[in-house]
Amino acid sequence: MAKRRRVGNLMALAVLTAVVQRPMHPYEMASVLRARGKDQDMPIKWGSLYTVVRNLEKHGLLEVVESGRQGARPERTVYRVTDAGRQEADDWTRELLSVPEREPTAFEAGLSVMGGLGPDEVAALLRQRLDELRRQIGDDRGALEHQSGELPRLFLLESEYALAMREAEARWVSSLLAEFGEGAFPGLEEWRAYHRTGRMPPDVADLAERGRTD
């Protein structure tokens, strides 16, 4: 089970790993994180950066090095990571790599309620999704091939993983569509009849009332 973090927003981890390199003010942190494409790797809301930085300072994970103003520019506070901040970043990274977390996706939510649509419409929507997945896979492969000539593989692993997940999803969606097309999907005709008549088979209706478990 994942630990409860003093500052649980994943942006906090991104900030800590950036400031480990050198002291920075928040504007520099944002520039470094954008340059690294961190908003592609984790849920980052840029508007919350200053709040996250203040919370990291409050909990002793960052500390102020200096604060000053140059000319008419806004005051800038420079932060550095503390020993506790380094330890937190390392421990958090170890946890993310070693502990599988259940993270339901929007697609899973859609699959869980797709019985409300007819199977023919579902199949059409899944074909649309598969076309988009294949387009994204092509783009990702091209980008990864280009980046592999410029960056060490260590900095491309998250892109490799994202590509592998898209490819696995595309294979699964393609397999499901094949079941629909071949009529091999269990209960397909009953599903179709329900949307044609509005009458749900008694055993399915009972399951719907009771849920997956009693």
Protein model, in words:
It is a single chain. The protein has 214 residues and is mainly alpha-helical. It has 10 helices and 2 strands. The protein has a two-stranded antiparallel ribbon. A hairpin with a 7-residue loop joins β1 (62-68) and β2. α1 crosses α2 (26-35) and α7 (119-148) packs antiparallel against α8 (157-182). The longest helix has 30 residues, at 119-148. The mean pLDDT is 89.
Question: What's the shape?
Answer: elongated
The helix-strand sequence is HHHHEEHHHHHH
Number of helices: 10
Helix content: 55-70%
> Could you tell me the mean pLDDT?
89
Features:
mainly alpha; 214 residues; 6% strand; single chain; 10 helices; two-stranded antiparallel ribbon
Summarize the structure.
The protein has ten helices and two strands; from the N terminus they run H-H-H-H-E-E-H-H-H-H-H-H.
What's the structural blueprint in terms of helices and strands?
Layout: H1 10-19, H2 26-35, H3 38-41, H4 49-58, E1 62-68, E2 76-81, H5 83-98, H6 106-112, H7 119-148, H8 157-182, H9 188-197, H10 202-210
Antiparallel strand pairs: 1-2
Helix pairs in contact: 1-2, 7-8
